[in-house]
Amino acid sequence: MNGKSKIIKDSIFSLLVTLLACTVAAITFIALSGEWTPYNIWYVFMVSYSYGVCVCLSIDIWNRFFPERSLLFRYSIPSVLGFILGTLLQMLILYYLYDDKSTDELLSWLNQGLLYSILANVVIIFYFYNQQQKITIQEELKVAQLQQAAKEKELLHSQLRLLQSQIEPHFLFNTLANLKALIILEPSRATVLLDNLTALLRQSLKQSEKETITLKDELKFCESYIAIQQIRLDDRISVNINVSANVNQQQPFLPLLLQPIVENAILHGIEPAPGRCALTIEVQKTEADVLEIMIEDDGVGLGNCSHKGNGVGLKNVRNRLQSFYGDDSQLSIMGNRMGGVSVLLNIPAEM
């Protein structure tokens, strides 16, 4: 429905409500007075409709010109104007229908309906004021919800920037130190390391500009990160990444959601272990349309690492999952019986 049609519909609805209220008020007034004479019935209905319609139209037109002003301004002034117009309309009706009556008689009739008209219009004005107040509260609530959504979105971006700032400093220093040594000792491996580092930084720059990327992009980012760590740890990491055929790798995915988990597995599980370790990433879609991502290592396991982190990376992952997916997401960390740690991430899957 366009704006013009909505205005017409609202105006007609307001007028119908006013006529109904005026009818009920007129019948009530006649019943209380006990005067069911044809003249009294006609007169009461004439007074009721004159004031009601004039006040209703005055409020409606006034609000078209001053929609942003306060409710008091938008209802008090047009109510007074409508009351004056209603009085003038009654005077014209009485004058043309009863031109044989004296002015004093016409004023006497007019005064009889004055108190009734005031009471009836107070009810009508209160109704429209109350309805408009509800609309205003709903609009303010909608604005507040939009502002809250904007704040939550900014929080997600802040958490992403925090994750990126945590990754880059220590990781870059270690990688550049390794690169310097490899340039002298093993130039071919230095070239591979530099290529992976360039790819990683390029992907990181792209991710920083987007709220979501694709699952494929995040897995590719993890592959570049793992490749660099493999060189740093002298190929002590055996990597296996399996993605089921029913998984849509183009589905939207939060950037840097898997990398902090992979980083934890390497720094706290694989690096402290004495020998070669395996790192496995399994991605599959369940029959319940849940995307299950398992990141598993066979390193030293929970509580056996001398390198103590502050857990900010995983905490931010949980917060971002909750902010983006709500209760539809889950992050579980489990120690393996044969050593190592498994991290299971569940989010809604998309076709």
Automatic annotation (TrEMBL):
Presence of the UniProt keyword Membrane in the record: yes
Pfam families listed in its UniProt record: His_kinase (PF06580)
GO molecular function: phosphorelay sensor kinase activity
Domain of life, per lineage: Bacteria
Membrane-spanning segments: 12-34, 40-63, 75-97, 109-129
Any GO CC annotation of this UniProt entry: membrane
Keyword annotations from UniProtKB, A to Z: Kinase, Membrane, Transferase, Transmembrane, Transmembrane helix
Keyword Transferase: yes
PROSITE patterns documented for this protein: PROKAR_LIPOPROTEIN
Domain Histidine kinase/HSP90-like ATPase: residue ranges: 253-351
PANTHER family the record matches: SENSOR HISTIDINE KINASE YPDA, SIGNAL TRANSDUCTION HISTIDINE KINASE INTERNAL REGION DOMAIN-CONTAINING PROTEIN
Protein name, per record: Sensor histidine kinase
